Amino acid sequence: MRDDARSTVYWGAAHELPRVVVRTAARRGDLQGRLIVAGAGGGEVWDAVEQVRRAGPLYRGRFAFLTVDHAVTREVLAGGDFRAGSPVRTGGLLGGLMARTAPDLLHPMEPPSLLVTEPPTHTRHRQLVSRVFTARAVQNLRTRTEQIASELLDGLATAAAAGEPVDLVAAYCALLPVTVISEILGVPPGERPRVLALGSGVAPSLDFGLGFWQFRSVTAAMRDFESWLTGHIAQLRRERGEDLLSQLIAARDQDGGLDESELKSIAGLVLAAGFETTVNLLGNGIALLSGHPEQLGRLRGQPELWPGAVEEILRIDPPVLLTGRISTRDLDVRGVEVPAGSYVVTVLAGANRDPKVFAEPETFDVARANARDHVSFSAGRHFCLGASLARMEGEVGLRAFFDRYPDATPLPGARRRSNRVLRGWSRLPARLS
């Protein structure tokens, strides 16, 4: 089968057919379908989330189980009876068709990605990179992150003085985390704009139901990203530095601890995840604080609240909407029978608004005492490797922005990203002064 034909068959099986089935199920009242449809194009999902909450702690949908319950979410994500993995290749005619026609590319939802592997492979890979993201290591990066934020904000001074509109996502929220993670992975400054563009192009690969041309665009971005990564690794082999990727290359070349696909998968995931989610955190934070001037005023009067404010931003508008796990055996979860091999979708954004855990969960409160109880970084062995880095960048980036431009005024034209899984803003126009 020709590559174009294979690609078209795969798109039909992996995206178009599920999209049609989900939309049909949503029209017939399936709550998972309604949630997926509501989130299409970056739409708001809160009405659908509350419908799921009213249906009980674990809802059995047409395609998977679904929960917005905080306790069940933690049980699924941290429990030993569930494993990570993609639900779409679990056997059967459709799964076999997808396996035969899938593009030969590294994919964030396919092994050897850290997102879907399990011990012992997951443990070995995680240990190789975790030392860069310890609390102490992140604290050492704080001063450099403050310098980067200051330089980026300096770059906005001309537009601010002229009263010109600025897109804060493109001019600040995206540039801060991509610069930080690029320095961690040894990416030269001249190549960072390309990495940023490729990362944004790859991000929808976490979704399903992509239109044909979007699928083709995402596939091309994944192929270009892998090609760039192969070249970057080759360059670092010739001229190794002190960065994380140089260390991983050394481990690969010296003791064979990683094969080449594992090396590229780890590097690609750390690089893309290292800025894609933090872009969302910064954009969501600016939008929330701009829309709640009384909360911003509290932070100005009590700057010690900033770390907690970042947790509250993560709680009420998380960078990742949902994630899922597959049951490894027949289970009873809160009185609901979950057969082995079932897919359970945990809606992180819904669990973060569970009224049993968070008083007045719809209220944005930068002084909320238990904001850190959110599950925005997942839980268990797949707890976000870069959580400490994201928290630090969120605090440094947001505080620096509002300290420098306290009277920033949002302008019409703000637009959500079209992704379903990743939640953030693609445009945040503002006038600075």
Structural class: alpha+beta
Multimeric status of the protein: single chain
As residue ranges, the low-confidence spans are none
Tell me what portion of residues adopts beta-strand conformation: 5-15%
The total of helices stands at 18
Spatial shape: globular
CATH architecture classification: Orthogonal Bundle
Q: Report how far apart the termini are.
A: 59 Å
Would you report the number of β strands? 12
Protein name: Cytochrome
GO molecular function, one term: cholest-4-en-3-one 26-monooxygenase activity
Family: Belongs to the cytochrome P450 family.
Organism: Pseudofrankia asymbiotica
Give a short synopsis of this structure.
This protein has 433 residues and is an alpha+beta fold.
What would you say this structure looks like, in words?
- The chain is α+β, with helices and mostly antiparallel strands.
- The protein is built from 18 helices and twelve strands.
- It has helices at residues 3-27, 31-39, 46-54, 70-78, 92-101, 121-130, 135-154, 157-162, 168-173, 175-184, 192-202, 212-238, 244-255, 260-291, 293-301, 306-316, 348-351, 387-404; strands at residues 59-60, 65-67, 82-83, 165-167, 322-327, 331-333, 336-338, 343-347, 409-410, 415-416, 425-427, 429-431.
- The strands form four sheets. Strands 1-2-8-5-3 form a five-stranded mixed beta sheet, with helices on both faces. A three-stranded antiparallel beta sheet has the order 4-12-9. A two-stranded antiparallel ribbon has the order 6-7.
- A hairpin with an 8-residue loop joins strand 10 (415-416) and strand 11 (425-427).
- The longest helix has 32 residues, at 260-291.
- The N and C termini lie far apart (59 Å).
